[in-house]
């Protein structure tokens, strides 16, 4: 019986700059089951990226708990947080964030190198992912030698190569034309559904959101379950 995989409870996060303070998360709570695909909707500036960064342990909360697979990330040291992320989480960004000085294959292999996998395992998994994203012949290209949609496919491969239990995707199609975006998204869904990977996807597209198992909105620092139609 699969239990809750992510349990976010009463998250508070306020950004402070000088004497300005901006509360972004104000008691956000959410439970996600293993293998679920959850679409996160919210207006620009509502705190979606902040929330994904908190779930991945990149950003810290002021208070609240973030349980991922039974581990409370808010209690981990910086180092243990990094190790947890490297082993169990894949992150895909809106602007790809590939390392410009590494080839596509090297970008994909990076997390395996960091996890000290064997050379044979690195080659096998990298080749497998390059084929899965249909870029087997382009592995030696650098990011700036690839089209936007190809770069995002490499970013997806990089996020999935270590078979993470959780993938966080932050507006992955936001920087692509509609058709390319749809293809990138179909690929992401295909690769995650196959492995029962839990997927949290920030999107502005209602069509994308409606293809998820659940839709959650972030508004005024709170998360809410939604069905039906939206204002944006
Ligand atoms: N590092 C930061 N320092 C200060 N303010 C930030 C920082 N990151 C985000 N913010 C502010 O917090 C709010 C939420 O940002 P963000 O999480 O990026 O929202 P979204 O992804 O929904 O557009 C915005 O008003 C943004 O300006
Ligand atoms: Mg954002």
Task: Write a compact overview of the structure shown.
Helix content is 34%, strand content 28%. With 232 residues, the chain is an alpha/beta fold. The strands form two sheets. It has a six-stranded mixed sheet with strand order 6-7-8-3-9-10, with helices on both faces. A four-stranded antiparallel sheet has the order 2-1-4-5, covered by helices on one side.
Descriptive report:
With 232 residues, this protein is α/β, with parallel strands linked by helices. The chain has one domain (4-225): 3-Layer(aba) Sandwich (Rossmann fold), CATH 3.40.50.300. The radius of gyration is 18 Å and the shape is globular. Strand 4 and strand 5 (71-72) form a beta hairpin. The mean pLDDT is 92. The strands form two sheets. A six-stranded mixed β-sheet has the order 6-7-8-3-9-10, with helices on both faces. Strands 2-1-4-5 form a four-stranded antiparallel β-sheet, with helices on one face. Helix 3 packs parallel to helix 5 (148-160) and helix 5 (148-160) runs parallel beside helix 6. Helices cover 34% and strands 28% of the residues. Adenosine-5'-diphosphate binds next to strand 1, strand 2 and helix 1.
The first-level CATH class name: Alpha Beta
Estimate nothing, just give the exact number of structural domains.
1
Number of strands: 10
Number of helical segments with 4 or more residues: 7
Please report the distance between the alpha carbons of the first and last residues: 36 Å
State mean pLDDT (0 to 100 scale).
Answer: 92
Radius of gyration: 18 Å
- Under CATH, the topology can be stated as Rossmann fold
Strand order of the largest sheet: 6-7-8-3-9-10
Structural class: alpha/beta
Main β-sheet description: 6 strands, mixed
Dominant shape? globular
What are the distinct ligands in this entry? adenosine-5'-diphosphate, magnesium ion
Low-confidence stretches: none
Strand content: 25-35%
- CATH architecture designation: 3-Layer(aba) Sandwich
In helices, the fraction of residues equals 25-40%
